[in-house]
Design brief:
2 helices; five-stranded antiparallel β-sheet; disordered N terminus; four-stranded antiparallel β-sheet; globular; 36 strands
Protein backbone atom coordinates (compact mmCIF):
# COMPACT_ATOMS: atom_id res chain seq x y z
CA UNK A 1 0.00 0.00 0.00
CA UNK A 2 0.98 3.64 -0.31
CA UNK A 3 0.70 6.00 2.64
CA UNK A 4 -1.47 9.07 2.40
CA UNK A 5 0.15 11.30 5.00
CA UNK A 6 -1.12 14.86 4.65
CA UNK A 7 1.88 17.14 4.15
CA UNK A 8 1.77 19.90 6.79
CA UNK A 9 1.71 23.51 5.73
CA UNK A 10 5.24 24.83 5.91
CA UNK A 11 4.20 27.81 8.03
CA UNK A 12 2.78 25.45 10.68
CA UNK A 13 5.93 23.39 11.19
CA UNK A 14 7.61 25.63 13.77
CA UNK A 15 4.45 25.65 15.88
CA UNK A 16 4.19 21.86 15.64
CA UNK A 17 7.80 21.52 16.77
CA UNK A 18 7.25 23.75 19.79
CA UNK A 19 4.05 21.94 20.74
CA UNK A 20 5.80 18.57 20.60
CA UNK A 21 8.66 19.79 22.78
CA UNK A 22 6.12 20.84 25.44
CA UNK A 23 4.31 17.48 25.37
CA UNK A 24 5.86 15.22 28.07
CA UNK A 25 4.85 11.96 26.38
CA UNK A 26 6.03 13.18 23.02
CA UNK A 27 9.30 14.37 24.52
CA UNK A 28 9.89 10.94 26.07
CA UNK A 29 9.36 9.23 22.72
CA UNK A 30 11.72 11.64 21.01
CA UNK A 31 14.34 11.06 23.70
CA UNK A 32 14.02 7.35 22.94
CA UNK A 33 14.70 8.09 19.29
CA UNK A 34 17.64 10.30 20.21
CA UNK A 35 19.11 7.58 22.40
CA UNK A 36 18.75 5.05 19.64
CA UNK A 37 20.29 7.44 17.13
CA UNK A 38 23.35 7.87 19.32
CA UNK A 39 23.63 4.09 19.78
CA UNK A 40 23.38 3.46 16.04
CA UNK A 41 25.98 6.09 15.26
CA UNK A 42 28.53 4.52 17.58
CA UNK A 43 27.71 0.89 16.69
CA UNK A 44 28.94 1.31 13.13
CA UNK A 45 31.74 3.35 11.59
CA UNK A 46 32.20 4.56 8.00
CA UNK A 47 33.81 1.73 6.04
CA UNK A 48 32.33 -1.03 8.21
CA UNK A 49 30.40 -3.79 6.51
CA UNK A 50 26.65 -3.30 6.96
CA UNK A 51 25.23 -6.26 8.94
CA UNK A 52 21.69 -5.47 7.78
CA UNK A 53 22.81 -6.76 4.36
CA UNK A 54 22.81 -10.57 4.21
CA UNK A 55 23.51 -10.80 7.96
CA UNK A 56 27.17 -9.77 7.85
CA UNK A 57 27.42 -7.33 4.93
CA UNK A 58 28.48 -10.00 2.43
CA UNK A 59 26.30 -11.95 -0.02
CA UNK A 60 27.98 -14.90 -1.75
CA UNK A 61 26.21 -16.62 -4.63
CA UNK A 62 27.11 -20.01 -6.07
CA UNK A 63 25.18 -20.80 -9.26
CA UNK A 64 25.87 -24.52 -9.12
CA UNK A 65 28.39 -27.32 -8.81
CA UNK A 66 31.48 -27.39 -11.03
CA UNK A 67 30.96 -23.84 -12.28
CA UNK A 68 32.90 -20.61 -11.91
CA UNK A 69 30.84 -17.43 -11.47
CA UNK A 70 32.20 -13.99 -12.19
CA UNK A 71 30.52 -10.70 -11.37
CA UNK A 72 31.66 -8.04 -13.83
CA UNK A 73 29.12 -5.23 -13.52
CA UNK A 74 26.39 -3.90 -11.25
CA UNK A 75 23.43 -1.52 -11.42
CA UNK A 76 20.86 -0.29 -8.90
CA UNK A 77 17.16 -0.33 -9.68
CA UNK A 78 14.91 2.53 -8.60
CA UNK A 79 13.25 0.23 -6.04
CA UNK A 80 16.57 -0.53 -4.35
CA UNK A 81 17.14 -3.97 -5.84
CA UNK A 82 20.63 -4.78 -7.06
CA UNK A 83 21.46 -6.39 -10.42
CA UNK A 84 24.86 -8.02 -10.96
CA UNK A 85 25.95 -9.46 -14.31
CA UNK A 86 28.84 -11.59 -15.46
CA UNK A 87 29.31 -15.20 -16.46
CA UNK A 88 29.07 -18.75 -15.24
CA UNK A 89 31.55 -21.17 -16.79
CA UNK A 90 32.18 -24.88 -16.89
CA UNK A 91 34.81 -26.74 -18.85
CA UNK A 92 32.31 -27.23 -21.67
CA UNK A 93 30.51 -23.90 -22.01
CA UNK A 94 29.99 -20.34 -20.83
CA UNK A 95 26.70 -18.63 -20.09
CA UNK A 96 25.67 -15.06 -19.53
CA UNK A 97 24.80 -14.74 -15.84
CA UNK A 98 22.59 -12.30 -13.93
CA UNK A 99 21.65 -12.20 -10.27
CA UNK A 100 19.24 -9.81 -8.58
CA UNK A 101 19.27 -9.07 -4.88
CA UNK A 102 16.70 -7.54 -2.59
CA UNK A 103 17.80 -4.46 -0.58
CA UNK A 104 18.55 -6.78 2.38
CA UNK A 105 21.01 -8.87 0.33
CA UNK A 106 18.80 -11.89 -0.25
CA UNK A 107 18.28 -13.19 -3.78
CA UNK A 108 15.08 -11.90 -5.37
CA UNK A 109 12.64 -14.82 -5.81
CA UNK A 110 10.76 -12.85 -8.48
CA UNK A 111 13.75 -12.78 -10.81
CA UNK A 112 14.60 -15.79 -12.97
CA UNK A 113 14.94 -18.94 -10.89
CA UNK A 114 15.32 -17.95 -7.25
CA UNK A 115 17.07 -14.71 -8.22
CA UNK A 116 19.40 -16.17 -10.85
CA UNK A 117 19.31 -16.07 -14.67
CA UNK A 118 21.67 -17.87 -17.04
CA UNK A 119 21.62 -17.63 -20.83
CA UNK A 120 23.71 -20.08 -22.83
CA UNK A 121 25.95 -17.92 -25.02
CA UNK A 122 28.26 -19.47 -27.56
CA UNK A 123 31.67 -20.95 -26.87
CA UNK A 124 33.65 -20.75 -23.60
CA UNK A 125 34.72 -17.19 -22.79
CA UNK A 126 31.35 -15.54 -23.43
CA UNK A 127 30.44 -13.10 -20.66
CA UNK A 128 28.46 -10.02 -19.73
CA UNK A 129 30.60 -7.07 -18.70
CA UNK A 130 28.14 -4.23 -18.05
CA UNK A 131 24.52 -3.53 -17.12
CA UNK A 132 22.11 -0.58 -17.10
CA UNK A 133 18.48 -0.25 -16.05
CA UNK A 134 15.91 1.32 -18.35
CA UNK A 135 13.30 3.73 -16.99
CA UNK A 136 10.64 1.01 -17.40
CA UNK A 137 12.64 -1.47 -15.31
CA UNK A 138 13.94 -3.60 -18.15
CA UNK A 139 17.59 -4.60 -17.92
CA UNK A 140 20.07 -4.02 -20.76
CA UNK A 141 23.47 -5.70 -20.77
CA UNK A 142 26.61 -5.72 -22.89
CA UNK A 143 29.39 -8.24 -23.28
CA UNK A 144 31.13 -10.74 -25.51
CA UNK A 145 29.72 -13.68 -27.47
CA UNK A 146 32.33 -16.19 -28.60
CA UNK A 147 31.35 -17.91 -31.84
CA UNK A 148 34.24 -20.35 -31.43
CA UNK A 149 37.62 -20.32 -29.69
CA UNK A 150 38.84 -17.49 -31.97
CA UNK A 151 35.97 -15.30 -33.17
CA UNK A 152 33.94 -13.13 -30.81
CA UNK A 153 31.12 -10.66 -31.40
CA UNK A 154 29.84 -7.60 -29.58
CA UNK A 155 26.74 -8.63 -27.61
CA UNK A 156 23.86 -6.41 -26.43
CA UNK A 157 20.85 -8.02 -24.78
CA UNK A 158 17.72 -6.95 -22.93
CA UNK A 159 15.85 -8.76 -20.18
CA UNK A 160 12.42 -8.09 -18.76
CA UNK A 161 12.08 -7.07 -15.13
CA UNK A 162 11.43 -10.70 -14.16
CA UNK A 163 14.56 -12.01 -15.91
CA UNK A 164 13.28 -13.26 -19.27
CA UNK A 165 15.04 -12.35 -22.51
CA UNK A 166 12.91 -9.58 -24.03
CA UNK A 167 11.58 -10.94 -27.34
CA UNK A 168 10.72 -7.39 -28.49
CA UNK A 169 14.43 -6.51 -28.60
CA UNK A 170 16.64 -7.44 -31.61
CA UNK A 171 16.62 -11.20 -32.30
CA UNK A 172 14.62 -12.69 -29.41
CA UNK A 173 16.39 -10.37 -26.98
CA UNK A 174 19.97 -10.54 -28.28
CA UNK A 175 21.83 -8.27 -30.71
CA UNK A 176 25.20 -9.52 -32.03
CA UNK A 177 27.41 -6.98 -33.81
CA UNK A 178 30.60 -7.36 -35.84
CA UNK A 179 32.04 -3.91 -35.09
CA UNK A 180 35.52 -3.82 -36.57
CA UNK A 181 37.13 -5.37 -39.60
CA UNK A 182 38.69 -8.29 -37.72
CA UNK A 183 37.54 -11.36 -35.89
CA UNK A 184 37.33 -10.18 -32.25
CA UNK A 185 35.05 -7.59 -30.63
CA UNK A 186 34.42 -7.03 -26.92
CA UNK A 187 31.78 -4.76 -25.39
CA UNK A 188 32.84 -3.39 -21.99
CA UNK A 189 30.35 -0.66 -20.97
CA UNK A 190 26.75 0.40 -21.57
CA UNK A 191 24.47 3.40 -20.99
CA UNK A 192 20.85 4.19 -21.85
CA UNK A 193 19.88 7.55 -23.31
CA UNK A 194 16.77 9.41 -22.18
CA UNK A 195 15.05 8.45 -25.45
CA UNK A 196 15.74 4.75 -24.88
CA UNK A 197 18.60 4.34 -27.32
CA UNK A 198 21.49 2.25 -26.02
CA UNK A 199 25.16 3.24 -26.26
CA UNK A 200 27.99 0.77 -25.74
CA UNK A 201 31.76 0.93 -25.99
CA UNK A 202 34.56 -1.62 -26.03
CA UNK A 203 37.33 -3.11 -28.16
CA UNK A 204 36.89 -3.51 -31.91
CA UNK A 205 39.38 -5.55 -33.94
CA UNK A 206 40.65 -3.54 -36.90
CA UNK A 207 43.17 -5.34 -39.05
CA UNK A 208 46.17 -6.27 -36.92
CA UNK A 209 45.18 -4.45 -33.73
CA UNK A 210 42.23 -3.10 -31.74
CA UNK A 211 40.53 0.29 -31.84
CA UNK A 212 38.05 1.94 -29.49
CA UNK A 213 34.60 0.89 -30.62
CA UNK A 214 31.25 2.62 -30.01
CA UNK A 215 27.88 1.14 -31.00
CA UNK A 216 24.44 2.69 -30.65
CA UNK A 217 21.20 0.82 -31.21
CA UNK A 218 17.58 1.86 -31.01
CA UNK A 219 15.28 0.93 -28.15
CA UNK A 220 14.07 -2.01 -30.25
CA UNK A 221 17.58 -3.41 -30.76
CA UNK A 222 18.34 -2.21 -34.31
CA UNK A 223 21.63 -0.51 -35.16
CA UNK A 224 20.94 3.23 -35.19
CA UNK A 225 21.74 4.69 -38.61
CA UNK A 226 21.58 8.23 -37.20
CA UNK A 227 24.82 7.46 -35.33
CA UNK A 228 27.91 7.55 -37.57
CA UNK A 229 25.82 6.41 -40.55
CA UNK A 230 25.41 2.77 -39.53
CA UNK A 231 25.33 2.72 -35.73
CA UNK A 232 29.01 1.81 -35.43
CA UNK A 233 32.16 3.90 -34.94
CA UNK A 234 35.82 3.04 -34.35
CA UNK A 235 38.51 5.40 -33.07
CA UNK A 236 42.20 4.59 -33.53
CA UNK A 237 45.03 6.56 -31.92
CA UNK A 238 48.18 4.52 -31.37
CA UNK A 239 50.09 2.05 -33.51
CA UNK A 240 49.13 -0.82 -31.21
CA UNK A 241 45.99 -1.80 -29.34
CA UNK A 242 43.46 0.85 -28.31
CA UNK A 243 40.25 0.05 -26.45
CA UNK A 244 37.13 1.60 -24.95
CA UNK A 245 36.45 0.89 -21.28
CA UNK A 246 33.68 3.22 -20.06
CA UNK A 247 30.87 5.44 -21.32
CA UNK A 248 28.86 8.33 -19.85
CA UNK A 249 26.06 10.45 -21.29
CA UNK A 250 25.77 14.21 -20.99
CA UNK A 251 22.34 15.80 -20.51
CA UNK A 252 22.71 17.56 -23.88
CA UNK A 253 23.01 14.23 -25.73
CA UNK A 254 26.77 14.22 -26.19
CA UNK A 255 28.60 10.98 -25.44
CA UNK A 256 31.78 10.57 -23.38
CA UNK A 257 33.98 7.51 -23.85
CA UNK A 258 37.06 6.66 -21.79
CA UNK A 259 39.65 4.23 -23.08
CA UNK A 260 43.34 3.80 -23.67
CA UNK A 261 45.82 4.12 -26.50
CA UNK A 262 49.05 2.15 -26.82
CA UNK A 263 51.82 3.66 -28.91
CA UNK A 264 54.24 0.87 -28.10
CA UNK A 265 56.18 3.18 -25.80
CA UNK A 266 53.44 4.44 -23.51
CA UNK A 267 49.86 3.56 -22.68
CA UNK A 268 47.76 6.68 -22.15
CA UNK A 269 44.22 7.53 -21.12
CA UNK A 270 41.92 8.69 -23.91
CA UNK A 271 38.69 10.56 -23.27
CA UNK A 272 36.65 11.22 -26.42
CA UNK A 273 33.48 13.26 -26.70
CA UNK A 274 31.06 12.69 -29.54
CA UNK A 275 28.04 14.58 -30.72
CA UNK A 276 24.67 12.85 -30.68
CA UNK A 277 25.28 12.01 -34.34
CA UNK A 278 28.54 10.19 -33.57
CA UNK A 279 30.91 12.93 -34.78
CA UNK A 280 33.96 14.17 -32.81
CA UNK A 281 33.03 17.17 -30.67
CA UNK A 282 35.62 19.72 -31.78
CA UNK A 283 35.02 21.81 -28.65
CA UNK A 284 36.54 19.09 -26.49
CA UNK A 285 40.28 18.40 -26.18
CA UNK A 286 42.01 18.26 -29.54
CA UNK A 287 39.43 17.62 -32.24
CA UNK A 288 37.21 15.78 -29.81
CA UNK A 289 39.78 13.75 -27.86
CA UNK A 290 41.88 14.37 -24.75
CA UNK A 291 45.00 12.25 -24.20
CA UNK A 292 46.37 12.29 -20.67
CA UNK A 293 48.19 10.21 -18.08
CA UNK A 294 47.86 9.27 -14.43
CA UNK A 295 51.62 9.91 -14.14
CA UNK A 296 54.77 7.88 -14.82
CA UNK A 297 52.78 4.84 -15.73
CA UNK A 298 51.10 2.61 -18.24
CA UNK A 299 47.47 3.66 -17.81
CA UNK A 300 44.34 1.56 -18.09
CA UNK A 301 41.14 3.51 -17.29
CA UNK A 302 38.13 1.50 -16.20
CA UNK A 303 35.36 3.96 -15.47
CA UNK A 304 34.07 7.46 -16.07
CA UNK A 305 31.56 9.71 -14.31
CA UNK A 306 30.11 13.11 -15.11
CA UNK A 307 29.81 15.56 -12.24
CA UNK A 308 26.76 17.88 -12.06
CA UNK A 309 28.98 20.86 -12.98
CA UNK A 310 30.15 19.16 -16.19
CA UNK A 311 33.60 18.12 -15.00
CA UNK A 312 34.65 14.56 -15.79
CA UNK A 313 36.15 11.95 -13.45
CA UNK A 314 38.13 9.02 -14.90
CA UNK A 315 39.50 6.23 -12.72
CA UNK A 316 41.65 3.21 -13.42
CA UNK A 317 44.98 1.53 -12.86
CA UNK A 318 48.43 3.11 -13.09
CA UNK A 319 51.12 0.49 -13.70
CA UNK A 320 54.60 1.83 -12.96
CA UNK A 321 57.01 1.83 -15.87
CA UNK A 322 60.01 2.19 -13.57
CA UNK A 323 58.85 -0.25 -10.87
CA UNK A 324 56.92 -2.88 -12.81
CA UNK A 325 54.76 -4.79 -11.81
CA UNK A 326 53.75 -2.23 -9.15
CA UNK A 327 50.23 -1.01 -9.96
CA UNK A 328 48.15 1.59 -8.15
CA UNK A 329 44.61 2.93 -8.01
CA UNK A 330 44.45 6.27 -9.79
CA UNK A 331 42.07 8.92 -11.07
CA UNK A 332 42.02 12.22 -12.87
CA UNK A 333 39.56 15.02 -13.43
CA UNK A 334 39.01 16.95 -16.65
CA UNK A 335 37.24 20.23 -17.20
CA UNK A 336 34.14 20.32 -19.39
CA UNK A 337 36.39 21.21 -22.34
CA UNK A 338 38.85 18.35 -21.87
CA UNK A 339 41.77 19.90 -19.98
CA UNK A 340 43.21 18.54 -16.74
CA UNK A 341 41.48 20.33 -13.86
CA UNK A 342 44.09 21.99 -11.58
CA UNK A 343 41.54 22.37 -8.77
CA UNK A 344 41.71 18.59 -8.31
CA UNK A 345 44.82 17.69 -6.28
CA UNK A 346 46.81 20.54 -7.86
CA UNK A 347 47.25 19.12 -11.37
CA UNK A 348 44.07 17.17 -12.09
CA UNK A 349 45.55 13.78 -11.15
CA UNK A 350 45.67 11.65 -8.04
CA UNK A 351 47.44 8.32 -7.56
CA UNK A 352 46.49 6.60 -4.31
CA UNK A 353 49.13 5.45 -1.81
CA UNK A 354 50.95 2.29 -2.78
CA UNK A 355 49.19 -0.94 -1.90
CA UNK A 356 51.33 -3.24 -4.04
CA UNK A 357 49.45 -4.57 -7.04
CA UNK A 358 46.13 -2.78 -7.05
CA UNK A 359 43.70 -1.15 -9.44
CA UNK A 360 40.30 0.48 -9.89
CA UNK A 361 37.53 -1.35 -11.71
CA UNK A 362 34.67 1.09 -11.06
CA UNK A 363 33.82 4.45 -9.56
CA UNK A 364 30.69 6.14 -8.23
CA UNK A 365 29.93 9.61 -6.91
CA UNK A 366 28.63 10.30 -3.41
CA UNK A 367 25.79 12.84 -3.05
CA UNK A 368 28.26 15.37 -1.63
CA UNK A 369 30.78 15.03 -4.48
CA UNK A 370 33.21 12.55 -2.95
CA UNK A 371 34.42 9.74 -5.18
CA UNK A 372 34.11 6.05 -4.30
CA UNK A 373 36.58 3.69 -5.98
CA UNK A 374 36.03 -0.06 -6.10
CA UNK A 375 38.65 -2.58 -7.14
CA UNK A 376 41.35 -4.95 -6.00
CA UNK A 377 44.51 -4.78 -3.92
CA UNK A 378 46.83 -7.77 -3.69
CA UNK A 379 44.01 -10.23 -4.45
CA UNK A 380 41.65 -8.66 -1.89
CA UNK A 381 38.54 -6.52 -2.32
CA UNK A 382 39.30 -2.82 -2.05
CA UNK A 383 37.13 0.28 -1.57
CA UNK A 384 38.52 3.82 -1.30
CA UNK A 385 36.86 7.16 -0.57
CA UNK A 386 38.46 10.18 -2.25
CA UNK A 387 37.57 13.74 -1.30
CA UNK A 388 35.96 15.99 -3.89
CA UNK A 389 39.17 17.97 -4.45
CA UNK A 390 41.52 14.97 -4.27
CA UNK A 391 43.16 13.06 -1.43
CA UNK A 392 41.78 10.22 0.64
CA UNK A 393 38.97 10.84 3.11
CA UNK A 394 40.48 9.94 6.52
CA UNK A 395 37.03 9.37 8.00
CA UNK A 396 36.37 6.29 5.87
CA UNK A 397 37.86 2.94 6.88
CA UNK A 398 41.57 3.18 7.61
CA UNK A 399 42.83 6.50 6.26
CA UNK A 400 40.27 6.40 3.46
CA UNK A 401 40.52 2.75 2.40
CA UNK A 402 38.92 -0.58 3.29
CA UNK A 403 40.39 -3.98 2.40
CA UNK A 404 38.42 -7.21 2.73
CA UNK A 405 40.17 -10.57 2.49
CA UNK A 406 37.66 -13.12 1.25
CA UNK A 407 38.75 -16.30 -0.47
CA UNK A 408 41.57 -16.15 -2.99
CA UNK A 409 41.98 -14.08 -6.16
CA UNK A 410 39.26 -11.61 -5.18
CA UNK A 411 38.27 -8.99 -7.76
CA UNK A 412 36.02 -6.01 -7.06
CA UNK A 413 34.43 -5.16 -10.40
CA UNK A 414 31.40 -2.91 -9.81
CA UNK A 415 30.60 -0.19 -7.30
CA UNK A 416 27.45 1.82 -6.59
CA UNK A 417 26.15 4.32 -4.03
CA UNK A 418 22.64 3.83 -2.69
CA UNK A 419 20.38 6.86 -2.10
CA UNK A 420 20.96 6.40 1.64
CA UNK A 421 24.73 6.76 1.17
CA UNK A 422 25.69 3.13 1.63
CA UNK A 423 28.26 1.73 -0.80
CA UNK A 424 27.91 -1.55 -2.71
CA UNK A 425 30.84 -3.50 -4.17
CA UNK A 426 30.30 -6.45 -6.52
CA UNK A 427 32.80 -8.92 -7.92
CA UNK A 428 33.97 -12.48 -7.47
CA UNK A 429 36.45 -14.55 -5.51
CA UNK A 430 37.76 -18.10 -5.40
CA UNK A 431 36.31 -19.86 -2.40
CA UNK A 432 37.49 -22.98 -0.57
CA UNK A 433 36.03 -25.22 -3.27
CA UNK A 434 38.64 -23.71 -5.67
CA UNK A 435 35.73 -22.41 -7.77
CA UNK A 436 34.81 -18.75 -8.18
CA UNK A 437 31.61 -17.37 -6.68
CA UNK A 438 29.82 -14.07 -7.16
CA UNK A 439 30.14 -11.62 -4.23
CA UNK A 440 28.26 -8.44 -3.23
CA UNK A 441 29.24 -6.38 -0.17
CA UNK A 442 27.64 -3.34 1.43
CA UNK A 443 29.49 -0.72 3.49
CA UNK A 444 28.43 2.08 5.77
CA UNK A 445 29.56 5.64 5.09
CA UNK A 446 29.23 8.73 7.26
CA UNK A 447 26.01 9.50 5.36
CA UNK A 448 24.42 6.19 6.34
CA UNK A 449 25.39 5.99 9.99
CA UNK A 450 22.19 6.36 12.00
CA UNK A 451 20.02 4.54 9.46
CA UNK A 452 18.39 1.84 11.49
CA UNK A 453 15.66 -0.74 11.70
CA UNK A 454 14.96 -0.72 15.44
CA UNK A 455 12.26 -3.37 15.51
CA UNK A 456 13.52 -5.48 12.60
CA UNK A 457 10.42 -4.35 10.76
CA UNK A 458 11.70 -2.68 7.63
CA UNK A 459 12.95 -4.39 4.49
CA UNK A 460 13.21 -1.14 2.53
CA UNK A 461 14.25 2.31 3.73
CA UNK A 462 15.08 4.93 1.10
CA UNK A 463 14.80 8.70 0.84
CA UNK A 464 14.97 10.16 -2.65
CA UNK A 465 16.51 12.41 -3.74
CA UNK A 466 19.26 12.66 -1.15
CA UNK A 467 20.60 15.39 -0.82
CA UNK A 468 17.14 16.98 -0.59
CA UNK A 469 16.09 20.39 -1.83
CA UNK A 470 12.56 21.32 -0.75
CA UNK A 471 10.67 18.04 -1.18
CA UNK A 472 11.50 14.34 -1.08
CA UNK A 473 9.90 10.90 -1.05
CA UNK A 474 10.48 8.52 1.85
CA UNK A 475 9.93 4.82 1.15
CA UNK A 476 9.77 2.25 3.95
CA UNK A 477 8.16 -1.12 4.62
CA UNK A 478 6.25 -2.19 7.73
CA UNK A 479 5.61 -5.82 8.65
CA UNK A 480 2.85 -4.87 11.06
CA UNK A 481 0.26 -2.10 11.41
CA UNK A 482 1.70 0.98 13.14
CA UNK A 483 0.41 4.31 14.41
CA UNK A 484 3.27 6.37 13.08
CA UNK A 485 4.38 9.99 12.81
CA UNK A 486 7.50 11.39 11.17
CA UNK A 487 9.77 13.89 12.91
CA UNK A 488 13.00 15.57 11.85
CA UNK A 489 16.03 15.63 14.18
CA UNK A 490 19.23 17.55 13.67
CA UNK A 491 22.69 15.95 13.82
CA UNK A 492 22.77 16.17 17.62
CA UNK A 493 19.37 14.50 18.02
CA UNK A 494 17.45 17.72 18.76
CA UNK A 495 13.90 17.89 17.48
CA UNK A 496 13.56 20.29 14.55
CA UNK A 497 9.96 19.77 13.51
CA UNK A 498 7.23 17.26 12.80
CA UNK A 499 7.11 16.27 9.13
CA UNK A 500 3.89 14.26 9.23
CA UNK A 501 1.32 13.84 12.02
CA UNK A 502 0.50 10.50 13.61
CA UNK A 503 -1.58 8.20 11.45
CA UNK A 504 -2.48 4.50 11.40
CA UNK A 505 -0.55 2.74 8.64
CA UNK A 506 -1.19 -0.81 7.50
CA UNK A 507 1.60 -3.31 6.99
CA UNK A 508 3.26 -2.95 3.61
CA UNK A 509 5.30 -0.50 1.59
CA UNK A 510 4.73 3.19 2.29
CA UNK A 511 5.77 6.06 0.04
CA UNK A 512 5.44 9.39 1.78
CA UNK A 513 5.88 12.80 0.21
CA UNK A 514 7.70 15.20 2.53
CA UNK A 515 8.00 18.99 2.43
CA UNK A 516 10.90 20.53 4.34
CA UNK A 517 10.68 23.91 6.06
CA UNK A 518 11.82 26.72 3.79
CA UNK A 519 14.01 28.02 6.60
CA UNK A 520 15.84 24.70 7.13
CA UNK A 521 19.59 25.24 6.97
CA UNK A 522 21.82 22.97 4.84
CA UNK A 523 23.25 20.08 6.81
CA UNK A 524 22.72 16.52 7.99
CA UNK A 525 19.40 15.54 9.60
CA UNK A 526 17.66 12.37 10.72
CA UNK A 527 14.08 11.50 9.74
CA UNK A 528 12.57 9.31 12.45
CA UNK A 529 9.41 7.23 12.30
CA UNK A 530 7.85 7.32 15.78
CA UNK A 531 5.20 5.08 17.28
CA UNK A 532 4.00 4.87 20.88
CA UNK A 533 6.71 2.27 21.50
CA UNK A 534 9.53 4.51 20.30
CA UNK A 535 11.57 4.84 17.12
CA UNK A 536 10.53 2.37 14.44
CA UNK A 537 13.18 3.52 11.97
CA UNK A 538 15.62 6.34 11.29
CA UNK A 539 17.19 7.52 8.07
CA UNK A 540 19.87 10.14 7.60
CA UNK A 541 19.11 12.96 5.18
CA UNK A 542 21.27 15.70 3.68
CA UNK A 543 19.63 19.09 3.17
CA UNK A 544 21.35 20.87 0.29
Amino acid sequence: MTASFPVPDLEELSALSLANQNDPMRSAIILCAMSFYGLAAYAQAPGDLDPSFSGDGIAITDFGANANERGNGMALQADGRIVVVGSTNTAEESSFALARYMPDGSLDPGFGTNGIVTTQAGAPGSALNAVAIQADGRIVVAGTYFVDDVESLWAIARYTSNGQLDASFADEGLLLVDVGSGYSDYATAIAVQADGRIVTTGWARSGTDFDIGIVRCTASGVLDASFSGDGKLTLGYGTNNDGGEAVALQPDGRILVAGHTNSGQNVEVVVARLTAAGLPDTGFGSNGSALCSFGDSADLPSSIALQPDGRIIVAGTATSILNWPLAEMALLRLTATGGLDPTFNGDGRYVLPQLGISGVSALALMPDGRIVLGGTANSSFQVAMVQADGGLDPGFGTDGMVTNDLGDDAYGMGVAVQPDGKVLLAGHTRMATTLEDLVVMRYHTDLSIGIADVQGANTELVIHPNPVGAVATLTFTLVQDERLSLVLLDGTGRLVCELAPEQLLKAGTQRVGLALPASLEPGIYVITGLSTRGAVFQVRMIKE
